[in-house]
Amino acid sequence: MRLPAQEVAELFRRCPRAAGEYLLTIDLEQQRVADGDGFSASFAIERYRREMLLSGLDEIGRTLQVEDRIADFERGGLDPPPTVPPSAFRAPRFSEGEG
What is the Rg, in whole angstroms, of the alpha carbon atoms belonging to the chain? Predict the structure, then answer.
């Protein structure tokens, strides 16, 4: 997750003022971080990472979700991706005086 530098500076400024614990709430669904004293900011996070965190998975867990598809691919059970034959490509045409 990434917060703008000014928001991070504000969090560090607030932290020593807190009596005892300083609690932050991180809302992954809304992509917001807030404390109980009026601070609130949105943050950026890669969609893939956000979905992994929300589903409680790591890289291995995500891979295991598609284990059947991986096994099909390894056995040759999936159709290969479509290809474009070389004859479909044409050399560029230039007008006189170009190129």
Answer: 25
Predicted local confidence at residue 97, as pLDDT: 66
Return the C-alpha torsion angle 20, 14, 5, 7, nearest 10: 100
Q: What is residue 78's predicted lDDT score, i.e. its pLDDT?
A: 66
Strand-pairing partners, residue 27, are: 32
- The domain segmentation of the chain, as residue ranges, is 1-45, 46-77
Please tell me the pTM assigned to this model.
Answer: 0.56
* 6-17 per-residue burial string, b: 16 or more CB within 10 A, e: under 16: eeeeeeeeeeee
Q: Which residue's structure tokens are 């598609």?
A: 66
What length does the chain have? 99
Distances (CA, A) of 23 to 36, 42, 70, 97: 7, 17, 42, 69
Query: Which residues have CB under 8 Å from 58's CB, separation 6+?
Result: 52
pLDDT class of 37 with cuts at 50, 70, 90: confident
